Amino acid sequence: MIKVAVSTDREIKETFKKDKEAGFRLLYYKYSGWIMSVCKRYSADNGEAMDFFQEAMIKINDKIGSFKSDREGALKSWITRITTNLILDQFRKRGRLLIVEIDGDANKDYIDPMYEEIASIPVEELLKMVERLSESKKIVFNMFAIDGYSYKEIAGILGISEDGVSSTMSKARKHLGKMIKEYLKENTK
Amino acid sequence: MKDWLEAVKEKLQEANSPLPDGELEILKGIIRRRKTKRILSLASALSAVAVLALVIVLIIGGEENTQKYLAQDAGKSPNEVETITSLPHPASFIHPRKPQGVTPNLSKELVVPSKTILEETMPEPVENKDDSIKPSSEKNITDESDNENRDKWADSENEVYFTEKHRRDNGFSVSVSVGGSATTPDNSDGIAYSGSKLPSESKKPMFHKPKVISLGLTLRFPLTNHLDLSSGLTYYSGVTSVLTVKTLNGRESQPLVAEQKIHYVGIPLHLDWYLLKSKRFSMYVGAGGEAKKCVYARQGEVRLKDESIYFSAIALAGLKYEPIRHIGLFVEPQYSYSFLPEDPVVKSVFTEYKSYFNVKVGISFDLPALR
Questions:
Q1: How far is CA A105 from CA A110, A137, A171, A182, B100, in A?
Q2: Whether the predicted interface score ipTM is above 0.90
Q3: Whole-angstrom Cα distance, residue B314 to residue B21?
Q4: Cα→Cα distances B6→A117, A145, A173, B13, Å
Q5: With an 8 Å Cβ cutoff, is A184 touching chain B?
Q6: Is residue A53 within a helix (H) or strand (E), and if so which, with residue range?
Q7: I want to staple B132 with a disulfide (CB 3.0 to 4.6 A). Which of A51, B100, B264, B288 is the partner?
Q8: Rounded distance, CA A128 to CA B214, Å?
């Protein structure tokens, strides 16, 4: 297995200025896994995630010249925004953002999992649970809970009301919590 | 107590999904191919414009051809005309239909070489079958009274003439225009269908009387007496109604009508050929292309982003009237043939219809000093 030293954001940026291909290689080594995980969180399957990943990498390569910040960590946020915007644009093109789901899966007897319980769940299992959420819940959950969009921003992007976002988020939370509880129940026997 | 969602967020933000071996090389290949494609597209567009310009200059006209035709009118063969290597004889600038005794309004710079030099360097004047055309040596061609006669003649008949003087007069120019447009009507329900979630039978958006206005700034560079190269910046703004359908519990909702606002910026590039040019009026036709980009789009409360650039071929005709020297008013109907994209983010009149008409009216200022 080849081990590659992880570059700082500043090194990646500077290398991009001098040699685009070398800069792209550094960026790939540091962030490709993260970008792929973002794509997987939003996608219906691995094939779709891979398509999004390739498009995102190409877009990041094209636009990195416009990224100015020197703050460590800012590049990751910028890359995440580029990736999520691209995915949402693709969803919009395919008409998948206009879906407002009203279903009756609200579980009144539901109990939230504990903060500490989450630590015992592998990341891959959590990702699989997120992937199993219905499309609208998955989009709202990812945007709000993981990628830091506000309800107002989500409402603007999806073309639904803030109440609609809040309601979908609440259902996503319950659905995911239920899956986590089931997982914990099965794996702590 | 911390919310369990925080723990999920922290975990997922550490996530690194493994990628297949060789993915980096695949990506590099895709990037290289896209770059090559982009360069080729640009080169093709530039080549097409260059070829078009060359074809027009070589086939249709240019000063040399005009000179040849005029000389041929005067009884010389094209081969004989080739032997006139220094300056064209002043007679070639005289309009064949000019009334007898009236000489053209040629400037002194053009008339030099003087009578003496002309006698030494020029071949024998072409023998004109038309008695009305006199060799310059027989008459003082900068006579002021003749200028007046010529202006009157030009005003009264609005004839076509191209002289060195007029080429300089029509130097670099800048124009400002406003325009309105229409597409070929496709439906009559008064609603434009857009968005990507539409009833299956209405996948193609339908526009009915979309209101698009344009504001343009055009720079015009004369290439020859007859030919101008024009380019600039055009801003398009449009408003239309949009019909979208949402899915509720797997069923499509009632259509919701929202307002769609679009703003595009276009860079046109065209060659204009003058069919007629008189002191006050000029008429031209042109052909070229335009690249457009959507700079703003909003559908209801939803902001749409479209990074693509759209191309169209354009054909136009123009009529210009100069009430004051160097200031002209013009009307320019324009036809655009759009190269339609497959699935644009913003569906508009520019991405959904091949045919698009735009009529511009505006004011132009000649800036001969900048030439």
A1: 11, 12, 8, 16, 98
A2: no
A3: 48
A4: 12, 8, 12, 10
A5: no
A6: helix A46-63
A7: B100
A8: 51
The backbone torsions φ and ψ at residue A176, rounded to the nearest 5 degrees and listed phi first, read: -65, -40
pLDDT at residue A163 greater than cutoff 80? yes
Q: Which amino acid is at B305?
A: K
End-to-end CA, chain A: 36
Residue position matching structure tokens 């009305």: B132
| Global pTM exceeds 0.80 | no
With a CB-CB cutoff of 8 Å, which residues 107-126 of chain A face chain B? 112-119, 121, 123, 126
pLDDT tens sequence across A23-47 = 999 999 999 999 999 999 998 888 8
Residues in chain B, pLDDT under 70: 1, 47, 50-171, 181-210, 241-258, 368-371
Helix or strand holding residue A117 (H, E): helix A115-118
Alpha-carbon distance values, A40 to A49, B42, B250 (Å): 5, 35, 24
- The b-or-e profile of B339-362 (16+ CB within 10 A means b, else e) is eebeebbbbbbbbbbeebebbbeb
pLDDT, tens digit (0-9, with 9 covering 90-100), for B4-50: 888 888 888 888 888 888 888 888 888 888 888 888 777 777 767 76
